[in-house]
Fold this protein.
Amino acid sequence: MHPYRSHNCGQLRQENVEQEVKLSGWVHRKRDHGNLLFIDLRDHYGLTQCVIDISSDLFNIAEKVRPESVITVTGKVVARTSETSNPNLPTGEVEVYLDVINVESPADMLPIQVAGDAEYPEDMRLRYRFLDLRREQLHKNMLLRSNVIASLRRRMIEQDFVEYQTPILTASSPEGARDYLVPSRTHPGKFYALPQAPQQFKQLLMVSGFDKYFQIAPCFRDEDARADRSPGEFYQLDMEMSFCTQDEVFGVLEPVLQGVFDEFGGDNEVTQAPFPRIPYAESMLKYGSDKPDLRNPLIIADATEPFRGSSFGLFANLIEKKGAVVRAIPATGAASQPRSFYDKLNDWAREEGAGGLGYIVFNADGTTKGPIAKNLDEARIAQIKEATGVNDGDAVFFAAGSANDAAKFAGQARERICDVLELRETGKFKFCWIVDYPMYEMNEDTGQIDFSHNPFSMPQGEMKALEEKDPLDILAYQYDVVCNGVELSSGAIRNHRPDIMYKAFEIAGYNKETVETEFGGMLNAFKFGAPPHGGCAPGVDRMVMLLADEPNIREVILFPMNQQAQDLLMQAPGSVDEKQLRELHLKLNLPKPKKKEEASSE
């Protein structure tokens, strides 16, 4: 017999009764029933109940062994009675009566319990991540992640994509986030950067004649943490293809994403290909976001005209003097809500920095009420009702300001109202593409033209658009794929022509020399024949987060950092000694510690 196991702890069934077996695993839980001691033995595959009688010489050993100790046991498989079987456990119809126990590795007192559903502070869980990962749900999440990656890889290979690995040590480039830098020992004063994404390399692969590329790619960005973004590193399904249109990129990714969510999404309904395509401008108007959650049925409408020149002075003045817009957010069935419902939404709006959240209530009897209804004539109210599509029994809330500010606040209000009224659909993964992003945007602080998305994208209309159109009217072949309000990926049809690239960057304030310095490698390659190409890169972590129904991305990453970008288990980032600094030709110039008085005043 094998020195550690003949079976794993999730394997034994009725057909194994009367067999002598050997199992190894962790002591998950012990239960002392007087004359009998039960040990739930757990390994990667499952859990088996083991039994020792008080008359056994092993009883004292088993009684003293602590939870999470690693043991090897030998014994006979016995059928449980119908009264004692556990239908919730795959091995629940059998148990093992033990003849031998070997303690392979005794456990100290546990800082966090593995068995049970107790909650622990995040810093404790991250410091003892190796224990946290033994817990059932987290262990299940990591297996899900592995299976999702295997499925993604298989589905890409089935479409004739080939996996290639791109460099981890590369050059720093301005791609929108802060780089992680690595000092060079052999080139004093110079630095490598960890890649924010394989963007330039995958484009260079297309220039090199490789037709369909993909990679489960590690990416590194020195960004602050969010619930859906881990600081430091993340993984994405990175893909690129030559001689393709935007539709063909969608045609590759839609069956991959739909297939993975069908495969691992349980009973949830998944959007079937082709996914809806929503222009960016339409998404900002209807949903107040370019990451719309389509499970929310509320659709924002433009209500600027009904307020233009109206007796509701606040909005009328904003429209006339500042060119403001008004957005109307319907609230289905809200007319029956008490006054406190409206007061709480007003309080929430003020907490978000708005002056409040005005509204009109359309009563079931056809009358209206609310602070805005009192200041509008019937014709204007009828216009609002028609624009929003509401019925008697509903209400409408309003947001006013610049187009960007009104859209953002209306989008937040749409989500808030949906949640308060419990209108969001459940049991669905709703996908969409956001398309036709503007190529440029106005920097409100500097008044300068900036790229709004990916600077390497092909403008719609190519060179003619750059030369003849107002930059703010130019659209790009850029797109995002969104699921349930979570952005899974950005992508684009790339700008593969040097002349168009020089012009595109010139509009954004980059001269030719700067472009050649920052992007010389790729630009030089384009001068020797580059195919039209495009791609996308859905985030693996976010996909698994959605499939696992986890609100925080750290629950689907093996060894995540905390919100301060610290690895509490491995104590990173950490100090290095003077010898290492000398080898790298570095001296530390640390900020001076704050005085006690300054620290206490903050």
Summary: The radius of gyration is 30 Å.
